[in-house]
């Protein structure tokens, strides 16, 4: 499971940008021998052991594109599954960094501070849910 951004799409890409974003993700997937599958944004995930990435079907917002890159990054970086929390958080951060490093500069230019806030909030929400479940477990 990936703490991917939910909800807010924050602006849409033009049809041409969406096609370009999809084509870029498909090209990266081919290059890294990854099978791309489409899903709802909040169900995005990657399985490094089967080399499959579930990426947002809609590809409306620049955030959808970055989620796609992030999931591909998990596989390229050979991330495990069900790691300890601190390992998982490091993997999340490095998959986002990989996404930024491999994003097309033309599409990366579409990102505003609000988009980065959505991505940061996803990490914070994941930690919040983890903390909540640990608090409940101790009672
Ligand atoms: Zn992730």
Concise synopsis of the structure shown:
The chain has about 140 residues and is mainly alpha-helical. The chain contains 5 helices and 3 strands. It has a 3-stranded mixed beta sheet with strand order 1-3-2.
By CATH, the topology is Arc Repressor Mutant, subunit A
Query: How many strands appear in the DSSP assignment?
Result: 3
**DSSP strand content:** 5-15%
Strand order of the largest sheet: 1-3-2
Structural class of the secondary structure composition? mainly alpha
Query: Biggest β-sheet, characterized?
Result: 3 strands, mixed
H/I helix tally: 5
What's the mean pLDDT score?
Answer: 89
**Ions and ligands:** zinc ion
Taken in chain order, the helices and strands follow as HEEEHHHH
The CATH C-level name is Mainly Alpha
Q: Estimate percent helicity.
A: 55-70%
Broad shape:
globular
**In terms of per-residue confidence, which ranges show pLDDT below 50 for 5 or more consecutive residues?**
none
> Which architecture per CATH?
Orthogonal Bundle
List keywords for this structure.
mainly alpha, Arc Repressor Mutant, subunit A, three-stranded mixed sheet, binds zinc ion
Descriptive overview:
- It is a single chain.
- The protein has 139 residues and is mainly alpha-helical.
- The chain has one domain (15-137): Arc Repressor Mutant, subunit A (Orthogonal Bundle).
- The protein is 58% helix and 9% strand.
- It has 5 helices and 3 strands, in the order H-E-E-E-H-H-H-H.
- The protein has helices spanning 15-31, 62-76, 85-102, 105-108, 113-138; strands at residues 35-39, 45-47, 52-56.
- Strands 1-3-2 form a 3-stranded mixed beta sheet.
- Helix 1 (15-31) packs parallel to helix 2 (62-76).
- It is globular and about 50 Å long.
- The two termini are 25 Å apart.
- Bound molecules: zinc ion.
- The site of zinc ion has 5 residues, from helix 2 and helix 3.
């Amino acid at each position: 499971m990936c703490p991917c951004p939910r909800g807010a799409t924050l602006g849409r890409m033009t049809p041409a940008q969406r096609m370009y974003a999809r084509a870029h993700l498909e090209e990266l997937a081919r290059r890294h021998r990854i099978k791309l599958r489409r899903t709802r944004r909040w169900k995005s995930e990657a399985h490094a052991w089967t080399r499959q990435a579930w990426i947002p079907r809609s590809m409306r917002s620049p955030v959808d594109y970055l989620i796609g890159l992030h999931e591909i990054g998990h596989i390229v970086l050979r991330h495990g599954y069900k790691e300890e929390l601190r390992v998982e958080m490091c993997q999340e951060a490095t998959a986002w960094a990989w996404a930024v490093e491999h994003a097309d500069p033309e599409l990366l230019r579409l990102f505003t501070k609000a988009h980065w806030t959505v991505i940061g909030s996803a990490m914070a929400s994941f930690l919040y849910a983890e903390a909540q479940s640990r608090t409940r477990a101790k009672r």
